[in-house]
Structures are given as C-alpha cells and as structure tokens.
Write a structure and sequence with these properties.
This protein has about 190 residues and is an alpha+beta fold. The chain is built from four helices and eight strands, in the order H-H-E-H-E-E-H-E-E-E-E-E. Strand 2 and strand 3 form a beta hairpin.
Length: about 190
C-alpha cells in the first residue's frame, strides 16, 4: 500500500512540477510578447512588397532641347518614325500596406510614379498585377488596386482622435525586398 501511495504522491508531484514549469514558460513567453510583437503578429500579413517597371524611350541623337519638350512632341508627330530610339527599362521596389480586404494598397507615390507595370507581392510570395487608382506626388502618397487571388487581411489602423502624444507606434515595411522589417517609435 505504501508503494502505491508513494507512486501516487510522486505522480502528483510530477504533475505539479510540470504545471509550474508550464506556468513559468507561459510567463516567459508572455513577458517576451511585447506590444510591438503583438502588433507585428497581427499586421505583418498586410504588409506587401511592390515591384515596378518603367520603360523610357530615348532618342539616339537629340538635336533639340530636353526630352519631352514641346519640340520633341512636335517632331515625334511628323518625323518620329525616322529617328532611331532605344528603350531603357528601369526597375524599382518599395513597400505597401493592404488597407482594404478588397485589394486596396497604400504606398509612396515615388514608388509607382510613371510605372508602366506594377506588381504587388503578398506575404506568401504571390505576385499580383496592380493599377494606380490615386496618386498625389506632393504628399508622396498613392493607392494601388489589385484583384486579390485569395482573401486578404487588411492592416488595423488607428484614428487621429485616438492618438496620444508619447504613445508608441510601430512601422512594418519591406525595404528593398527585406520583408517584415520592423521599427518602433514615439509620437
């Protein structure tokens, strides 16, 4: 009988020890899960990479004024087919954030300005063609629309009425394709 009692006692102590270890691990995990970590977990899926392509047509022998001037346009209408041209392809990358689960993405205007092709790369690597629906170069803001191949998760944004001076903020972006780079700051 004593053997069974001691085994039961050891079993109960073992369960109690596992509970304490589990509780300690949970406390350590929750201590490591700062507000910044929570924001990243909740919103990283809404951060996208934007790749653009812009094709420039260049004259080989510019004989009058800068490219795109009135004379350039005039001569293109009448003599454009006779002048040799070369094409220059410029590629660029930037970051964006999904603000609407229907496919609206906010980015900087300088990322998509004059782009002939825009691709939005989602967190899982899926590449989707995009189209500019709004561009404001003065404020460096643009909105790109995509047709999502699957349901999207939009970022959770705060409101201006809710912001307090001294409050922490988190920025998640994809500089040069380095996905989910994170920084935090104070308002």
């Amino acid at each position: 009988m004593k053997k069974f009692l001691s085994l039961d006692l050891l079993f109960c102590l073992g369960i109690g020890l596992l509970s304490v270890v589990g509780y300690a691990e949970a406390q350590a995990t929750s201590a490591r899960e700062t507000p910044v970590v929570k924001v990243v977990k909740e919103n990283a899926e809404a951060v996208v990479n934007i790749a653009t392509e812009h094709i420039l047509l260049l004259r080989e022998n510019p004989s009058w004024g800068p490219y795109g001037s009135e004379f350039d346009l005039f001569f293109d209408q009448f003599f454009g087919f006779q002048r040799p041209r070369r094409a220059l392809k410029l590629n660029s990358v930037g970051s964006g954030v999904i603000i609407d689960d229907g496919g609206l993405v906010v980015t900087n205007a300088h990322v998509v300005h004059m782009a002939s092709t825009i691709f939005v790369i989602l967190i899982d690597g899926t590449s989707v063609a995009g189209k500019i629906v709004y561009e404001n170069p003065k404020d460096d803001l643009a909105i790109v629309r995509i047709n999502p191949p699957k349901p999207l998760k939009a970022v959770k944004l705060g409101t201006t009425e809710d912001i307090m001076i001294g409050e922490s903020v988190v920025a998640i972006w994809n500089p040069l394709g380095l996905e989910n780079s994170v920084t935090s700051g104070v308002i």
